[in-house]
Amino acid sequence: MTEKVRAMVQSGPRQMELREFERPAIGADDALVRVEACGVCGSDVEQYKGHLWREGSKPSIPGREPLGVIEEIGDRAAARWGAEPGDRVAIEIIIPCHTCDLCLAGRYQACRNRRGGHGVTPIEKEPSLWGGFADYICLHPDSIVHKMRKDIPADVAVMFNPLGAGFRRAVDYGKTGIGDTVLVLGPGQRGIAAAIASKLAGAGTVIVTGLARDAAKLALGKELGADHTINVGEESTVEKVMDLTGGVGAVVVLEPTPIASAPVLDAIESVRHGRGSFSPG
Ligand SMILES: [Zn+2]
Q1: Residue among 240, 202, 198, 193 at smallest CA distance from 221
Q2: How far is the CA of 174 from the centre of ligand 1 (A)?
Q3: pLDDT tens per residue, the chain (281 residues)?
Q4: How far apart are CA 154 and CA 235, in angstroms?
Q5: Who has the most CB within 10 Å: 200, 227, 255, 277?
Q6: Cα 281 from Cα 272, distance rounded (Å)
């Protein structure tokens, strides 16, 4: 009897159902990962609610931030990823082509020839198990995986995606340095992760903004490293930043807020003249 794999399938806006699939056979270039945990991306929520559901959208298994243990892996895949059965891996959502100009320049997130995406590729594409809300997830030959230590509890390790994004924004893009003032516009999981990364990179002062309804997130931001928080409904971000920086502005401004233009304007007006960096979302 073939082993069955359970997975949640989204077939329309707010339509999710538990389905069973055949456990797929693994080829030389593929791998099968047993899912330990999967983060919930803001886009998972938009996908569930139907904001991303368009004419012609097809059923898929959501879950863009999977963490798991390699159960089976083909010979060539093992050599490519330097991985073997039993290894714990974090899986990136985007499955890029690895050959276009953007991929070769390291900007694979913007690849226009994507092979698909974990949590995005429809189940009609064999072997269907492309999302993390399932017992097992398949790796495409072009998937990007990162090996992770196994001693980190799964519910912490699964934060790899927002924490990685926070590090990329604050350190890779923002170049946060010792003593810098960093302004983070928005207290979502990526904003708070950016505040944590900024502090660990040596920032002197970290400021996080949010709306009145974000009070709990701002309090958490303060607990995790923010020195100051700004409720943008009650205070002017630009005035408060200028006040806190002696009128010169923040050295690094990070803007991880989606679908809003006001933070972009605040970023431009809050960043230090001459030696500032602004990293948009
Ligand atoms: Zn590419």
Answers
A1: 193
A2: 24
A3: 568 999 999 999 999 999 999 999 999 999 999 999 999 988 888 889 988 888 889 999 999 999 999 999 999 999 999 999 999 999 999 999 999 999 999 999 899 999 999 999 999 999 999 999 999 999 999 999 999 999 999 999 999 999 999 999 999 999 999 999 999 999 999 999 999 999 999 999 999 999 999 999 999 999 999 999 999 999 999 999 999 999 999 999 999 887 788 899 999 999 998 766 666 65
A4: 39
A5: 255
A6: 19
How would you classify the pairing of strands 88-91 and 65-73? antiparallel
All CATH 3.90.180.10 domain ranges of the chain, comma separated, are: 4-158
d(CA 130, CA 181): 41
Q: Which CATH superfamily is domain 162-280 in?
A: NAD(P)-binding Rossmann-like Domain (3.40.50.720)
When the candidates are 3.40.50.300, 3.30.70.1450, 3.30.70.100, 3.90.180.10, the CATH number that belongs to 4-158 is 3.90.180.10
Q: How many A from CA of 107 to the centre of ligand 1?
A: 8
Q: For residue 105, how far is its CA from the centre of ligand 1 (angstroms)?
A: 9
How far is the C-alpha of 52 from the C-alpha of 165, rounded, in Å?
22
pTM (2 decimals)? 0.86
Which residues of the chain form CATH 3.40.50.720? Answer: 162-280
CA of 50 to the centre of ligand 1 (A): 28
In angstroms, what is the span from residue 101 Cα to ligand 1's centroid?
7
CA of 114 to the centre of ligand 1 (A): 6
Q: How far is the CA of 95 from the centre of ligand 1 (A)?
A: 9
Asked whether the beta carbons of 238 and 232 are under 8 A apart, the reply is no
